[in-house]
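Key idea: predict the complex, not the pieces.
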Amino acid sequence: MGLHVDDHSNYNVLSRIATSDGHGENSSYFDGWKAYDNDPFHPIDNPKGVIQMGLAENQLCLDLTHQWIKQNPQASICTGEGVSEFKDVANFQDYHGLPDFRKAIARFMGKARGGGAMFDPERIVMSGGATGAQENIAFCLANPGEAFLIPTPYYPGFDRDFRWRTGVQLLPIQCHSFNNFKITEPALVTAYQTAQRSNITVKGILVTNPSNPLGTTLDRETLRTLVSFANEKRIHLVCDEIFSGTVFDRPTYVSVSEIVEEEPYYDRDLIHIVYSLSKDLGVPGFRVGVIYSYNDAVVSCARKMSSFGLVSTQTQHLLASMLGDDDFTTKFLAESRRRLSRRHKVFTAALHRVGIKCLESNAGLFCWMNLKHLLNEATVEAELELWRVIIKEVKLNMSPGSSFHCSEPGWFRVCFANMDDNTMETALKRIRTFVDRGNDTTAAQAKKKKKWSDGSLRLSLPRRIEELSIMTPRLISPHSPLVRAAT
Amino acid sequence: MAKKGVPLSEMATSDTHGEDSAYFAGWKAYDEDPYDAASNPSGVIQMGLAENQVSFDLLEDYLEQHPQEFGWGCGTSSFRENALFQDYHGLKSFRRAVALFMEQIRGGRTQFDPEQIVLTAGATAANELLSFILADPGDGLLIPTPYYPGFDRDLRWRTGVNIVPVHCNSSNGFRITLRALEDACAGAETMKVRVKALLLTNPSNPLGTAITRPVLEEILDFVARKDIHLISDEIYSGSVFSSDEFVSMAEVVEARGHEERDRVHIVYSLSKDLGLPGYRAGTIYSYNNEVVTTARRMSSFTLVSSQTQKMLASMLSDKEFTENYLRTNRERLKKRYEFVVEGLSNAGIRCLQGNAGLFCWMNLGELLEEPTVEGELSLWNLILHEAKLNISPGSSCHCLEAGWFRVCFANMSQQTLEVALMRMKDFTEKMKAKQMISSM
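Result:
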């Protein structure tokens, strides 16, 4: 694509980056969103619509944030109490960010991680959400064609964020269910050597801790393995800790920052953290991304690049105040964890009752659900076929594991924190009905291997994922189901 | 660089970020010794920052009279909806408000469709996005000189795209000529650089002039002939002193029945006209649907805070407010400009005749020891350290003629401006006296 053979039709062809599909929107991860957009659930207006369980948003504690804002009008520059700050705030465009904002973020980062590590405000670099942070750090650390190793399964957005405009590659470190998808040293070594054999320069490793989509946290031993490997190979380690404040159960969360502080003989110039308020605080609309690097040169470079994605000072000002309120943040984090824990328990218990097991998890806004027993065959095609059925017949959008590059078919990520209790109940009911029907069908057709392609479960979705995009002329991007419900 | 560490990318270690230029060196000097009427009256006065601070009171008054209760109205659902909103289409109400505002700036002479608006965190991001979309690494963007120094970073750093300067000079008031455009193209061809677009800033930074209709028509013909794109950065469109002196590229496109529109893209932002650089509210307006689609996807890296979108949507939807604001803002800028030009004239300094923007394009050629970049930078340094004024040397704007300087006048109070002009006068008198003595 993008070959300019005829110079006279120059302008019709945009750049290679523009015409590639590096934007990633053709993945099945987004196809489910398109299906949802076409037929969104609403308890009153569209009770039979698709319930969005493919969006990892944290909507459980927005009432707490809103309450704080109501009680603190001086933090908003458009209230009578706050307008005196308007001019200075509106005029401030220094890419270092408002000093109070950086201080508050550093403090919040420490608290979100359970107080195990301290963060220096001087190392905080802003970005346009974690999306912007990931791209920024990729630009800083790697040249086009170079690669980062990444454990599977991983968040599909990384394919765009880390690779699209940067030209950097992501190479998988294969993880498997037999050991709960743990990242092992042999797997690391294999991935690294595979890259070497293909003459690809590996510049670093990208991990997400807590993991999306697994919902598990890395143990100390694994973190040390990663840091040690990075040191040995002289490569960078980028830890996306965007879900660090959503750890609701044991084991206790260990941030890579703790390893850095505990193990001074490791080169801290290799360690970089990506963070954001989108998940922990539930404010994705505010676009607050952070790069935190222990490497001065990276801080300097990333800061210059942050010019392309600064946080609105209006938002910085508000959050500086909110996150500077120690009382509030302590209560918020505790309550958020409590609500997530409860939601997680209710959800996984209900799934368990109908014979669906999830990977044991202690963090995140989702479950990693095992539906292998429902597949015709252990293939990606079968997984996608099941996924189509779930969207079409069960009217739930969950994300198929293949879109996360999972090495084993049959896993699905299902989000549980982006809806209210009633919607969740409805979703669970649908799952129960679906499983019961499947059991009946199985009993009736005990000899037949194909479970889902006959009779009343005729598929009317297009066979190819790509065709779904024709059904949805509108472009997609994250829509919260509750946003839809409210409008 | 990393001490014992692993190399960073080539991009990280290059200096294409541009911060080593004189443009930014002056800012550093200011940061270290900033003027304050009370606490540091002999500090450096910042005249190198093109900000608009003359109309803040209008915005403050508006907010005081229309307190948006806590910014989100009373209901939790309104806050919740807004906090969760990360759709890269942007809030419809905000896009509508921006489209409306852009139409008002152009006196209703054009129409902007909110569906063609892409939101980005500032014009910085908008320009970079277009560079990524319209050109491949190694390709070229034609840019008339002198131009905003930030373009060297915004358009080239992470994109790998080249800037091909279209040289303009004072013989015709720095007007962009067909000859200059053709010469630049020929030069690019020799260097085997494939030109993909022309980027205009209209009104011009640093010249402070609005491009006339005949020149715009000529430019549109040129890009059509060369089959390239046209980016019109109209970030200062609301700062033209008389609204009927501004002709937007949108008007030219519409007048032609939308022929050639697929190659035209307009960049705008609220940073200059509204004086809100901190809010990072930039936009790309493109008539080309493929560009809109791609730009929207890319804007994921640089969205506008939903909180800010919502507040600005309210403010900019208030037609009475915006009409009054635009009119008052223009009047104040015009007054400032005339005041500065007169003050400089009293110091024996001529400026290019301007009709827009937040700055003057001033000629100090007579004070140069030698008509070279070195001479210019030497003078600039003197002005910075003796007159304690940070102004921007023309060479940092890629001006081929030595001796031109950009002087910003809207980012300070009237009193500070008076002090600055007095210092300039003292300085030039001293310099001229020195010149007279040394020539005797």
